[in-house]
Amino acid sequence: MPTTTTPGIAAGRLPSDMLAENFLDLHPPMSAHEAQVAADRCYFCHDAPCVTACPTGIDIPLFIREIGAGRPDAAAREIFEANILGGMCARVCPTEVLCEGACVREAAEGRPVEIGRLQRHATDELMSRQGHPFARAAATGKRVAVVGAGPAGLACAHRLALKGHEVVILEGAPKPGGLNEYGIAAYKTVDDFAAREADWIIGVGGIEIRHGRWLGRDFTLDELTSDYDAVFLGMGLGGVNALEVEGAQLEGTGDAVGFISELRQAGDLSALPVGRRVVVIGGGMTAVDCAVQSKALGAEEVTIVYRRERAKMGASCYEQDLAASRGVRLVFEAMPVRLIGDDRLEAVEFEYTEAGPEGLRGTGETFRLAADQLFRAVGQTLGTVEGVETAHGKIVTQGSGRTNLDKVWAGGDCALGGDDLTVTAVAQGRDAAEDIHSMLTG
Amino acid sequence: MADLTTDFLGIRSPNPFWLASAPPTDKEYNVRRAFEAGWGGVVWKTLGAEGPPVVNVNGPRYGVIHGADRRVLGLNNIELITDRPLEVNLEEMARVKADYPDRALIASIMVPCEEEAWKAILPRVAETNADGIELNFGCPHGMSERGMGSAVGQVPEYIEMVTRWCKQYYDRPVIVKLTPNITDIRKPAAAARNGGADAVSLINTINSITSVDLDSFSPEPSIDGKGSHGGYCGPAVKPIALSMVSEIARHEATRGLPISGIGGVTTWRDAAEFMALGCGTVQVCTAAMTYGFRIVEEMCAGLSTWMDEKGYRNVSDFVGRAVPNVTDWKNLNLNYVAKARIDQDLCIKCGRCYAACEDTSHQAIAMKPGRVFEVIDAECVACNLCVDVCPVENCIDMVPMAAGSTDPRTGRVVSPEHADWTTHPNNPAAQAAE
């Protein structure tokens, strides 16, 4: 039986009960009483800062008041009117930098109202009752194509369907949800929530998802614009950035996105191999999700190495603390310069960095970390989409997601200007849908 | 160290905290435990006339109003007087009094409004050696339908009549417990005094329905789908009780009549407030029903340390100190001008003051960039609503304007002189100042 100290990359390092415990719900649901007590802490602020801080503008004080008054279902309706993925956002939003970071009780006593968990309480309550809270408007006869069934695509499709349009979602992966299904740590969305949420959203009617359909491989944008009245691009970022260092081809190196995806789709976590010593390169949420889950699978040592200073890290303070509390080591201001090994990865050589006037540069001082496995979490790329104007590797949009092409909108991670959050993608998808609707009915 | 010893009508108790006549004082078992816990006195659960004991409902007796986290803010009950045989209660009272001679033991009594009924029970109560009696003219539910309790307390003539009988047939202190379910508390209090009462105690509970079940449409507490009004008590009734106490304390016909204060006393502070308004003792019920007898430890410690801090050696040093400050509206100084002031360092920028002032008051708070809230003195009438809704203690103050300064709202110079409605030019009945 492998253990945490078994050399190399091995599956089954931990017994199944420990694995189950390591992947438990990160923020367990609130009981009804807990929610009442938490709701009572909300001051119902005037022009509340939490609402301003929410990319989807959920009326947070109102929904919390509805929970307090014993109607979590009314609260959920309020949430879903602004954000149909309110259930997932309640689980994965970095609330400490959004609503809870803006909460006046955070300023007053360092303990904000637990908005995220209250939102989960309300949305869970309504979603558990089956059915869909909204009814579609009369059919318009218009058809819209949505590329990608991730948060942006689902939010856009749902809002369009509500308005009475027919929506076809073209999705490459076998399941809907995008990063919610494939790219987020399992402990943030337990019990197959991403899939359940996608099903629930589609339950409004008027949305057809065609899986196994990749843009550029199975269809072109030109075909969509001629076949549909409008097109929304929400396919996220398909490619992963490479590490351009010596030894990058060694066995044992991989990308974090792929690892997380494999983990999320694994039926049996004890069959999923992980290194004894794991190094994750990067500083975003994906790096943390990858590192914490490597540790949870039984890796003995997991180190995140980020090339800049801690304050620049994309992962929130909460995520950094989570990683540290799960036994992940965080190393800052160091970049990989060489991967060492014969065929298999054995160690990674790093050079310390310093910020100079021309950007980051190495100091010349190096160190090595023993490693059986290395994950790259250094960003993703769009690739090319014919005819669409891009900048900095993303689609350029104006207003509510309008691209340079007539009839084509974009939103979510593939569009420029977002901050790579589920909640931002939802807002962009929703707003593009409103804009498309205006155009189609105007 | 402050001395909490209380002398009320000659009845001494080690502290002013008595348990009110209610379920916690219904039997020897409870009362002994209450005395062991430190209560200064007990008013035994109301005794009825000899004969078949009263019967209670066999379903819920209590309803509740909850605050945050299910904190009990108000309780109502439809329990009747003691449902145990008179003889049993009397025997127990005698035993307890003998074992706790330093504690106050008062017998609460409710018998029909007939002289014979009172004449019959009073000697038997006297034999228990209880320190005094309390006439239950207050309970508003059940017994009142049979002409007792608040049915007596609502008719001053009956109060006076029964009190007189009691003074005639009983030689220890007689306390008359008043119902708040009347228009003017001064009338029954004056009647009690006219009848010879040594003191009044108030308030008894208030007619109430705590809630309505929206599935069954039954009032709560619900007995087989029906409800009856109960008596409301607990922290929620304290302001009503304080006002009624103050009326008796300052009214010409009742001034000086000893008062035992009742109504939502939960901590030492509540007790001190009742006493400042003239109560020689306080009676506690809901707090003990909610938290148990041990709360008296907090009450004694809190009152004692507060008295030490203020330099009061005996409770009589501060009893009644607030009474001279209770006055009629017409006597309030209209030349007292204050303005709200928000401490920007303490402000957490919730904007509740702004919402309240905009939607209710005088649009006297400005919301500036960066969520900075500032008072507009030219609009502020000092209503205090912003202070009341602010979640941060002491963040907003009402600051009096100095005499000689000009109120930007009225353009008038603040006068150092007192001036009130009685002399105001807008008052048609005003007396011209001499």
TrEMBL record, chain A:
Signal peptide: none annotated. Residues 21-129 form the Dihydroprymidine dehydrogenase domain. GO terms for molecular function: iron-sulfur cluster binding; oxidoreductase activity. Residues 143-429 form the FAD/NAD(P)-binding domain. It comes from the Bacteria. PANTHER family: GLUTAMATE SYNTHASE [NADPH] SMALL CHAIN (PTHR42783), GLUTAMATE SYNTHASE [NADPH] SMALL CHAIN-RELATED (PTHR42783:SF3). This is Glutamate synthase (NADPH/NADH) small chain.
Automatic annotation (TrEMBL), chain B:
Residues 423-434 have a biased composition (Polar residues). InterPro entries: 4Fe4S_Fe-S-bd, 4Fe4S_Fe_S_CS, Aldolase_TIM, Dihydroorotate_DH_cat. It comes from Limimaricola pyoseonensis. Residues 405-434 are annotated as: Disordered. Keywords: Iron, Iron-sulfur, Metal-binding, Oxidoreductase. It is an enzyme of class 1 (oxidoreductase). GO terms for cellular component: cytoplasm. It comes from the Bacteria. The keyword Iron-sulfur applies. Belongs to the dihydropyrimidine dehydrogenase family. Transmembrane segments: none annotated. Heterotetramer of 2 PreA and 2 PreT subunits. Involved in pyrimidine base degradation. Catalyzes physiologically the reduction of uracil to 5,6-dihydrouracil (DHU) by using NADH as a specific cosubstrate. It also catalyzes the reverse reaction and the reduction of thymine to 5,6-dihydrothymine (DHT). Residues 338-370, 371-401 form the 4Fe-4S ferredoxin-type domain. Its EC number is 1.3.1.1. The keyword Oxidoreductase applies. GO terms for molecular function: dihydropyrimidine dehydrogenase (NAD+) activity; iron-sulfur cluster binding; metal ion binding. This is dihydrouracil dehydrogenase (NAD(+)). The lineage of its organism: Bacteria, Pseudomonadati, Pseudomonadota, Alphaproteobacteria, Rhodobacterales. PANTHER family: DIHYDROPYRIMIDINE DEHYDROGENASE [NADP(+)]. It catalyses: 5,6-dihydrouracil + NAD(+) = uracil + NADH + H(+); 5,6-dihydrothymine + NAD(+) = thymine + NADH + H(+).
